[in-house]
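B., you asked whether I could sanity-check this one before it goes into the benchmark set. Here's the sequence:
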Amino acid sequence: MVLYIDPGTGSMLFTIIISIIGFVAYMSRVLWVKVKYTITRGKVDKADHDKIPILIFAEAKRYWSVFEPICIELDKKGAKVVYWTTSDDDPALTQESCKNLKVEYVGKGNKAFAKLNMVNAAVVVSSTPGLDVYQWKRSKLADYYIHVQHAANDIAGYRMFGVDFFDAILLSGQYQTDEIRELERKRHLPSKDIELVGIPYMDELRKRIEAAPSADHDRVCVLLAPSWGTNSIFNRFGTKVLEELLRTSYHIIVRPHPQSFISDPVMMETIMKDFPESDTLHWDTNSDNFESLHNADILISDFSGIIFDFTLAFDKPLLYANVDFETDCYDYYWLDRNPWTLEILPELGLELNSDGLSNIKEMIDRCLNEERFRLGRDKARSETWVHMGEGAIRTADYILKKHKELAGK
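And here's what the prediction gave me:
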């Protein structure tokens, strides 16, 4: 009698077997590290010469703008820093501004996380959330994990449990501290170390803006920068927003979130095919968003962090899309208050919904001319950008202070 297994079941069984083999191999490596560590513990302790003093992990090359000013300040102070990146074309790999910085490409996805999960480091610094939640686990050989923000908005905007298991969070506004403390109380978590340091990358962005020549164009330039996922502009409004924008006499730049090409590749391919480049429409997929932000007079976005780069650093207004933001899978869900982002948006620009798309030109003109939005930007800066101009120095000082404490100095 021949045992028959249908293709679907066979594929599932094959996947399970491969997963078990991979898990056993991975756990064997972890067990060996633990055994080796147990045997040598007490002999090498914190004087272990193999321990990385300060490790910075960047999930993608776009985060070099977040970490570069911090690395420069650490380098000025003579700190030995190792920088791990998952992008083989990361500009950090060719940087020449930091003599004490060792940059390494550690592979993509699970390959990088497997190395992170066994790293021997005193201090690990990253802007990547989800430590000890998904595939990124705390290493038994790492002493302290620090989270650095890469956007000037709610810390509760991450997917659920995004920063629960870091030892320290470096923030830029008191409301973010309040969010962390509320999450800790409700989840019965130990209190993390919180330091208000400011926003290093936005400090550098302001310097770059001040040094750049004024944008020169003869018509209003509109930047459409959707985020990704089910709450994003394209997923909720479809292409109607593009259709209405092209009916104006304005120049349109579309800059989708990089993740949208990974999460929604078919949708993005279809939209770009249906709305090709022209004298009126430009698609921006460069890793550096500076030129688009600098040239635009107004931004249209949803819940993307680019909102605050544009309004606070470039000091320009926006239209924010009403996409009925669903908080179920985010840390927002646990809060008793409305997210700060949703509270401040009406003071930065006008809300755009599906019914108002046909009036988009009128709304753009209002945002460009009403004084109340400039005052709203001033208010937002005061609440979410503390220690303006000092972010990198304060961040570097905190990292070095923590490293010295761990070393017993």
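One thing to flag: The radius of gyration is 23 Å. Otherwise nothing jumped out at me.
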